[in-house]
Each structure stands twice: as C-alpha cells, then as structure tokens.
Amino acid sequence: MNSPETSLSSPLFPASHPAILALADGTVFHGVSIGAEGHSVAELVFNTSLTGYQEILTDPSYNGQIVTLTYPHIGNTGVNEEDVEGRRVFAAGLVVRDCPALLSNFRATSSLPDYLKKEGIVAISGVDTRKLTRILRDGGAQGACIMTGTDAGAALALARSFPGMAGQDLARVVSTDQVQPWTQGSWQLGSGYTQPQGDGPHVVAYDFGVKFNILRLLADRGCRLTVVPAQTPVEEVLKLNPDGIFLSNGPGDPEPCDYAIAATRTFLDKKLPVFGICLGHQILGLAIGAKTVKMKTGHHGANHPVRDIDTGRVFITSQNHGFAVDAATLPAHARVTHVSLFDGTLQGLELTDRPAFGFQGHPEASPGPHDIGVLFDKFMSLLADQK
Ligand SMILES: NC(=O)CC[C@H](N)C(=O)O
Fold this sequence. Notes:
alpha/beta, ten-stranded mixed sheet
C-alpha cells in the first residue's frame, strides 16, 4: 500500500527537530523528534493502552519493535524511577500523536523526551496515529524506520531492510546473565516497593525478558524467587531444588528458543509445576508438541476481553504478543482454558496430566486491569499441591 506523505506541521511541532517514520509499504510520515538522534529499524506495532507508557517502553517483550501508542497525548505524567518493568527501555522506538510540553504528576522525576534521550531511544511525535493504526490494522505489523532528520529515501530503504520478526530469538539477547534472587514485592502508595518475607515455595523463574511485576506478584504471594538466564541448563536449575518453574514473557519468535523448549520438556517429565506467561506460554505449547503462528497485527493493549472456558467469565486483560499457540495443534493431554473474544485465538492452555499451564496475555498487567491476577493464585495452588 502506498500513501502520500503525511505531515502535521503546526506551531506545536517546530521544524527545528524533524524526524521521519517510514514504513516498508512505502508510507512516510513527517513529525518531530522527541527522543535520541539517529535511527531505529524494527517491526512496527500499535498499542491501544490509555495509560502506562513507561511500563510499555520498559517491557523487554518490545525488544525489536517500535511502538505506536494510539492514545493521542503521551508524556503528560512524565516518567519516574519506579514504574519500570525492565532494566532499561527495551522498545526500539516510540511513535505518538502529541507529546505535551507540560507534564504533571507528583511522582515524575523527568519528562518523557528527556528520558528517551537519556536512554538513547529514537521517537517521533506529530504523527497521524489514527491513519497509521489503520494501515497496520489492515496490512499487519511491518518493518519500519524512525529517523531524525528529513532523509525519507534513506529511512524507506532501512524500513524495507527489516527481515521480519519470524525466526528471531531475542529472549537470550534481553535475558539477565546472572542467577540472582528476587525479593521486591508490589508498590504501595506512601511506602513504595515492599519486601515480602519470601518464606514460601521456591520458584525458579526463567528470564526470557521478564516483566518485573510478574516477579513482584509472585513475591507478594510468599514465593522465594531465583531468576535464571534464558539458557540456563536444566541440571543447574534442578540443583537449586525448585518447587516450581516459571517461564517468563519475552521478545521475538518462540520457535527458535530450542534451549527453553527442551528444558521445559524435562521439567514437565519431572512433574514440576510449570507456569508460563506470553512467550513462556508459547514455549510451554511448543514443548508439548503444539505449533505457534505469527499473527497479523498481534494483540497490544490493556482492554482485551478473554473468556475463561470453564466458568464463562470474561476477564479484561493486558496483552502484548505477535505470535500465538495454534489451538488446532494441541496434543490430547492439553486443553484450551481461555480464548480471546476479539479474534478467537488461544489465550490459555493447561495440561491434563501434569501440573502445568500457560496464559498468553499479561496477568501481571502493569499497565492494565488486574482481573486475571487470579492465575498467580492458581500457580500457588499447584505449588501447594506438590508439597
Ligand atoms: N509479551 C510476550 O512475551 C510476547 C511473546 C512473543 N514475543 C510474541 O510476540 O508473541
């Protein structure tokens, strides 16, 4: 699809810091740089969350992706030191309609543009994100380039050079390189992050790009947590004497994560409780012989309805994925527990002969509604049953 170049020039978007967003399909948007100088080439996706831009930017699952936020005013609450879901900004770039010049929030310690510059992330504002989102919705996620300056030809060539997300193993790229304990619990107004006792079951969490709030919610429930790098061999994990295994979210395609798929098979054989979220859920699916597929636009937002098959109850969930487990390929010893009410894709699975389950969305939210946080309680029950 080829569209004419789009420009939203106004006094709000001074020409002094121009930037370009080029899509592999030939569309070019002109706007204003609100981040670092330079360029970034990645898969372009859109996220419909109204809040939580700092959590979205720092979610390691966005590695290799430029995020367009459909909510038009982004940056109005600034950023702070606490609302991070990873060690740094992992999104490859940010596209917004408007970044207000003024920010207002009692917790803010920096403006969004200053933060993006400090983190070295290119970002563009002044883009008609409604038009852009329609292009992505109709044509699917695609390669794109944000570039500071005005060289549309160079940006287009780079956008077209993006090889696609399929086949990319990014989990081991973003993972920690150390085995380490995790002790932080959820944030409380007035006191900040808590430090729960951690005298419950020992959970070893594979870090494929884990969002911190997952670890916090497990810590809140009393888990003693050890976070391990994505490629940690099974024998090393077993030496830690875990009561259960957590498989985290993460960026990229799950299929090339053969190290994690093989490790998961062993944990399942040993009947250890296993809980997978997003990439971890996909890895669980692959470990039992199911297949994963690349979706057209994926799911990125904080209001996705998901039906619990057993109870009929609908949960409003946070989502961020571009791949999905193909329900038609599940083996006989697995069943579907949740489906998306947007497109019917598989959202949850459970093994019928092992204490293992996975969820495709993000039950830890951050950002998002907390409806389906009950899945953490389900994991706690599996851990208790094994004792
Ligand atoms: N949030 C995630 O873990 C995303 C999983 C995977 N990278 C996908 O895009 O589907």
